[in-house]
Amino acid sequence: MDLKEMLAHRRAIRVYDKTKHIDTERVADCLRLAQLAPTSSNMQLWECYHITDTKTLEALHRACLQQTSVTTAQELVVFVVRPDYVKRRATANLTFQEQNIREHFPKEKQEKYLKQWDMYYKKAIPFLYGRFFGLLGLLRKGLTQIASPFRPVPRQLSEADGDVILHKSCALVAETFMLAMSEIGYDTCPLEGFDSWRVKRALHLPFSAQISMIVSCGIRDEATELGERFRIPFEEQYFRI
Ligand SMILES: Cc1cc2nc3c(=O)[nH]c(=O)nc-3n(C[C@H](O)[C@H](O)[C@H](O)COP(=O)(O)O)c2cc1C
């Protein structure tokens, strides 16, 4: 399939054919491809739970409000964001970049690049991603407000804005996964209709984890009509400046 065909094939499937099976390893391969999606500052503050176990699937049916897209699915993927992994991911990025620079950059430029990455992942990222009951977000906003009359400043700095940043990146991962699934003829449906507290309990996730999206997986039931796809006229959403 080329990209156009993949995009046409991907539909939000509400009823799967229970007689047609998907291969768990191929679904895992699509999740490996989804890792290639971009994330803000390459922080990759997401993880996914590929649910194939019957008992957990049943617990998730209830948590997903018995939507047929979930009850008829063969497998589920729960995409989770982890604001609590900031330090871990910043260290991983820095460790990688240190080696990357030493192996791939000219000797005379190495020190400069190493310093830049060090500043970014040891100072800027902890400042931008730090959380403490909303107070660090307020501090960030306050500091940038002082500078804002004199120069452009980033304004999405509250801790709630931080959640948006994490879920935005995670949504790109989920979309990449769904397109990879389409490419091999597998179907999906993205969902946010779930009880996040129950989902977290079923997966034994900590309080700090946030459920971003659940994607159900299977092969569509051809007997259930999908109908035409509705999209707003392009002119209403496209502005060339
Ligand atoms: C973030 C998000 C949440 C969604 N949640 C649900 C859901 O809980 N249940 C559902 O049946 N469909 C859900 N959908 C699917 C949309 O309704 C669907 O993508 C939309 O109607 C467009 O149809 P298409 O995907 O076939 O083009 C969701 C889609 C997105 C992107």
Can you say what the CATH homologous superfamily of the largest domain is?
NADH Oxidase
Q: Beta-sheet strand percentage?
A: 5-15%
Main beta sheet: 4 strands, antiparallel
SS-derived structural category:
alpha+beta
CATH topology of the largest domain: NADH Oxidase
Give me a quick take on this structure.
The protein has helices at about 5-10, 25-35, 55-65, 70, 85-105, 105-130, 135-145, 160-185, 195-200; strands spanning about 45-50, 75-80, 185-190, 210-220. By secondary structure, it is of the alpha+beta class.
Overall description:
The protein has 241 residues and is of the alpha+beta class. The chain folds into 2 domains: 3-84 and 161-236, NADH Oxidase, CATH 3.40.109; 86-157, no CATH class. The protein is 49% helix and 11% strand. The chain has helices at 3-9, 24-34, 54-63, 68-71, 86-104, 107-129, 135-147, 159-183, 196-202; strands spanning 46-51, 75-81, 187-191, 210-218. Strands 1-2-4-3 form a 4-stranded antiparallel β-sheet, sandwiched between helices. The radius of gyration is 21 Å and the shape is globular. The mean pLDDT is 97. Residues 11-12, 14, 67, 69, 189-193, 213, 229 line the site of flavin mononucleotide (FMN). Flavin mononucleotide binds at residues 11-12, 14, 67, 69, 189-193, 213, 229. InterPro entries: Nitroreductase (IPR029479), Nitroreductase-like (IPR000415). Residues 8-218 form the Nitroreductase domain. Keywords: Oxidoreductase. One of its GO terms (molecular function) is oxidoreductase activity.
